[in-house]
Amino acid sequence: MLMKQGLAMDKEQLKTRVCERIEQQSERIIAIGRDIFSHPELGFKETRTARIVADIFRELQLECQEHIAITGVKGIAKGKEHKAKVMIIGELDAVVCPLHSHADKHTGAAHSCGHHAQITSLIGAAIGLAPFNGHLDGDVVFAAVPAEEYVELEYRQRLREEGKIEFFGGKQEWIRLGEFDDIDVGMMVHSHAGITEPKFLISCDSSGFVGKVIQFVGKEAHAGAEPYNGINALNAASLAIMAINAQRETFRESDRIRVHPIITKGGDLVNIVPADVRMETYVRGKTIAAVVDASQKVNRALKGSASAVGSEVQIMEIPGYLPLRQHVGTNQIFAENAATLLAPECNLYGYELMGATDAGDVSNLIPFAHLSGGGFGGSAHSKDFTVTDERMAYIRPAQVMAMSVVDLLWDHAVLARSIRDNDKAPLDRNSYVTFWKEFNRVI
Length: 443
Fold this sequence. Notes:
By secondary structure, this protein is α+β, with helices and mostly antiparallel strands. The protein is built from 13 helices and 21 strands.
């Protein structure tokens, strides 16, 4: 039993107090969510959002570290003992969606994937737990991580050439920098577009992928006077898209392969035969083995299409993200706490999340729960994505994550330590970095 202001508290009473603290601050927390939603920033550029997070961490008297992988922020609430460390993660960045009503008019960035809600619920959990961290037998790490969206690949390649990053995903960079080395259990809650009801999605999966930046090199010529003296790199790229499409029937449905190229540069001037054409694509799949197989087929299509018109092609392969490895026990702790707030039927199981996330990479190193929550309308990454239930988007995830932290770090953090000791993670930091370096090549 613990004493706080003359009152004895057991674990359930502490969880109640933490939830009450979040409830008392709910108007402020929701206002933070609205503010971040209205000021979206792209990956490794989230300076305003990071500053908001850091200021609140310092206000809560958390140990605060900034500029981790350029814009990342970490706040640490020290427990009365340090038996284990539990990390709550939120993602700082937006995606490009210029038609969204809250898009940045200069960059096209918009929070049409709901990362603003993650950061807000992360802040909410910190607000709830910080006054009571002295009652826990472990430390809580609140991690605001940059650049989950795998976009602007050429910009990130420049960052890599400048030595500022090595990987294109924020959590990948945190892994490389050792920020997860001493973490025993991790969790986060992602938005789920189109589920407007107060529900949580438990033990969902997601795909892995690799990225490609492709350059077709042809030969310039006057497009009207002498096109026969040129080599049209845009034709090569167009053929490549069709050749990739011709491969789709060779992908097994169970592997969930997705290939979705875009042309980022189609030439220089309309009256010059295109000689420099750029593409980007992902190759997604349910397993890394399936991704590698499909990736080889895509490379074959790219090379064959270049050969067909006499152009050259350069394929830069970039480490992507790993499939999610959900920790069943941590998911169950979250589900049990969610049921006490919303009712058991609030938890939905078994959704297939066809996207990918660098949380998958983290989950292959530590026990990890990647939950999703409702309260959102529209479609992900689209102009109609919106928050329909602010309490479900911001407050409920904060409360349930905070309650789960109390469970994990109560009684000498026995639950967190048991999860850590019995987990068989397939990778550690060194093997992870080695694994992805094999994909970091130009062919």
